Amino acid sequence: MSPTDACPLCASKDLEVVYDLGPARSPHDVPGAIARCRGCAMWFKLIAAPEMIEAAYQGDYGQDDSGAEYFAGERTRRLFREILKPLVGQGPGKEPKLLDIGAGPGTLVEEAGHLGFAAEGIDLSEANVERARARGLKITKVSAEQLSADGAFDVVTMLDIIEHVPAPVEMLRAAYRALRPGGTAVIYTPNHRSAIVRVAQVMHRCGLRGPMYEIFGQNHVCFFDDRSLAAAVRHAGFEVRTQKILAYDPRRPGQYVSFVNLAALTAIEMMAAPMRLGFRLLTYATRPLQ
User: Residue 77, Cβ neighbours under 10 Å: how many?
Assistant: First the structure.
């Protein structure tokens, strides 16, 4: 049995394989067929062994020029500031306590500090933790599920992380435990009911498989849309406060994008905006007071 032979959202084993994109194309890709749960319509990757996920993040992951720009560039910093600004002042103290899960090199922790948060983060990459600590940031090498800080934080952020884990509801429950009652969790992840995905599906049916591999075949293992993400958040005990569908920024791709692809992605997102079919989901959820 595969570790992912059941839906990560509802645990149903009534699944259908919708895409088999073939073997990994990069050492940082997680191979596996793409399945859809017939019970709740969640999409996820069937992975033969958990070691395949761990292997994708070894070596020089995120250390090339495009990775550095994605994790710590000015566009990333601007995005993080925009996400955090509605939460400034939240909490009983002068410095709201913030935890960033999947902190990477600590960019969000750094920006949160500039906005007045008492911010810290966790990450599983030893290299990321060392780089962040060298810049004076409080980053700890630990998984979300191993956290023992029950109710210690006013805000918990999970940006570009929930799609990388095979048990996303467990990560959300860990965030729930880390928050004080009334605290806020922030989740940012791709929207797989977006225009970009629909165009890629049409191209796949026409024999052009590259776009679908870029969306589903790399190192993401869970594929949310506005409905499934809201369901996952509620399964973990949260109340969904606000859910926004945002445009994908093709100039922050985390990898090389040609001028032609950049123009095409920009055009698709511009046309998708009025229909709320952008490629990014931003959700603010609250741990209830009772």
Answer: 15
Supply the pTM of this predicted model: 0.93
| Domain covering 63-286, topology | Rossmann fold (3.40.50)
Q: From CA 67, how far away is CA 253, in angstroms rounded?
A: 9
- Which of 139, 145, 142 has its CA nearest to residue 172? 145
Report the length, in residues, of the chain.
290
Given this model, what pLDDT does residue 226 score?
A: 96
Q: State the pLDDT at residue 74.
A: 92
* Measured distance between the N- and C-terminal CA atoms of the chain, rounded to whole angstroms: 39
User: Across-strand partners of 15?
Assistant: 37
Per-domain residue ranges of the chain: 63-286
Output the pLDDT for position 59. 61
Residue 106 phi, psi (nearest 5): 95, 15
